[in-house]
Design brief:
By secondary structure, the chain is α+β, with helices and mostly antiparallel strands. Helices cover 45% and strands 32% of the residues. Strands 1, 2, 3, 4, 5, 6 and 7 form a seven-stranded antiparallel beta sheet that branches.
Length: 194
């Protein structure tokens, strides 16, 4: 297992905070609502640990998968628990399992993921290009298995950000995982001079 220093983890947390600030502003513009995002937890974990803290494998999740290409290949995976997806979609009177609900969650995931990746790309002077999101609703274990199967043995660490999203006073939680290709987290830190 590779250990990261406090300074390196602080730098990654700062990237998460900047990215979430930009994402909150963009999401608020799209929704026409006041949006605040906080990232109380940001950690780099070995893949198995990151998967374990995302929740129990049999819990229902709404997942938004945003592939990233460019100087570093990665996947951004946003996971909304069922109750929080319901709360977010309920702001507009829609159910998360409907086509409108999936579309809304896809746009939320696209805005959050894309803004974070754009900040990351600027901070580390890399070309990172998000691809269109895919929205899935399934048990957490099935979502993670299908995402990780697509990555093969190429992922060693994940950047995990448990985030709190407040939209017009409605609280929602989500897990944000950045799954870079092998050695990707280390490469990001090197680009930051750490």
């Amino acid at each position: 297992m590779t250990a990261f220093t406090d300074l390196q983890l602080d730098a990654l947390r700062e990237l998460a905070n900047i990215g979430s600030g930009n994402a909150g502003t963009a999401l608020g513009s799209m929704l026409g609502k006041t949006v605040d995002i906080s990232v109380p937890t940001a950690a780099v974990l070995p893949l198995a640990d990151a998967v374990a803290i995302a929740g129990r494998p049999d819990e229902l999740r709404h997942g938004i998968v945003v592939p990233v290409v460019g100087d570093m290949e990665a996947i951004v995976l946003l996971l909304f628990p069922e109750a929080d997806a319901r709360t977010l979609c309920g702001i507009y009177g829609i159910e998360p399992s409907t086509p409108d609900g999936r579309s809304m969650l896809g746009e939320v995931g696209n805005i959050l993921g894309t803004n974070y990746i754009n900040v990351l790309a600027q901070m580390v002077s890399m070309t990172l290009e998000p691809r269109p999101p895919q929205v899935v609703e399934d048990m957490l274990g099935a979502i993670l298995e299908s995402v990780l199967l697509g990555r093969g043995e190429d992922v060693d660490h994940a950047l995990v950000m448990d985030s709190s999203l407040m939209v017009e006073g409605e609280q929602c939680s989500l897990s944000f995982l950045l799954l870079p290709n092998h050695g990707g987290v280390r490469h990001l830190l090197e680009r930051l001079g750490l």
